[in-house]
Design a protein that fits this description.
This protein has about 210 residues and is of the alpha+beta class. The protein has four helices and eight strands; from the N terminus they run αααββββββαββ. It has two domains: about 45 residues; about 130 residues, Immunoglobulins (Immunoglobulin-like), CATH 2.60.40. It is elongated, with a radius of gyration of 33 Å.
Length: about 210
């Protein structure tokens, strides 16, 4: 045992001045206490966050059924457009893809905002997917009875040919196709909205073969 090591002595009591300061802090009236105002500030911040959350999320939240009932598509049109130019060793030409355009009318009772739209393009005979297009629309809230600007969805795949004129020549051999539009807003979940046929009109050309 090392005799040089000694047990620590008793803790020294706080100075009289320090003790008085501690007592004075607790003896202050509540509105003079800094801890009181810190608590008030914390509660105010929480109240502001709660108000923002209620305004931006809870007041705009919709079930899938409510969202589907509130979104009305109008000014609907469809066509085939040149999506890309193909320059490969075995093929040089263009890629023609289906495209749909429409506007949204809010026929519900709540604002519509941050509406995600997905268009799935399929062949009618087989149901095989041609491609899909998507867009986040209505970043600015659309009020009840409000109408949006034109929204366009286009597939990423389609037909290849040497030129748009070549498509015109063999348009009768095209397979009928359609587009399924799905919609989602905030936490509503993705829900089917509308399905419509794709015309055989090529953008920039006047002739259109009607789908029978």
């Amino acid at each position: 045992m090392n005799e040089n090591k000694r047990n620590p002595g008793p803790l020294a009591p706080p100075a009289a001045e320090e003790g008085e300061e501690i007592l004075q802090e607790y003896q202050k009236k509540f509105w003079q206490n800094s801890k009181f105002w810190l608590g008030v500030a914390t509660l105010l911040i929480l109240a502001v966050f709660a108000l923002v959350y209620k305004t931006t999320v809870m007041n705009t939240a919709m079930s899938p059924a409510e969202l589907k009932a509130a979104v009305e598509l109008f000014d609907i049109s469809s066509q085939w457009v040149v999506n890309d130019k193909v320059n490969e060793e075995d093929f040089k030409g263009i890629l023609l893809v289906p495209e749909v355009s429409f506007r949204i009318r809010n026929v519900g009772e709540k604002d519509l905002s941050y509406v995600f739209l997905l268009g799935v393009f399929r062949f009618m005979d087989s149901g095989k997917v041609i491609g899909e297009g998507y867009q986040m629309a209505l970043r600015k809230a659309l009020p009840p009875n409000g109408e949006s600007a034109t929204i366009t969805l286009a597939a990423g795949f389609g037909y290849r040919a040497s030129s748009a004129a070549a498509f015109e020549k063999y348009k009768k051999d095209w397979r009928n196709s359609f587009c399924e539009v799905f919609v989602k807003s905030h936490n509503s979940g993705l829900t089917p909205l509308k399905t419509f046929y794709i015309s055989r009109r090529i953008a920039g050309q006047d002739v259109e073969i009607k789908i029978k």
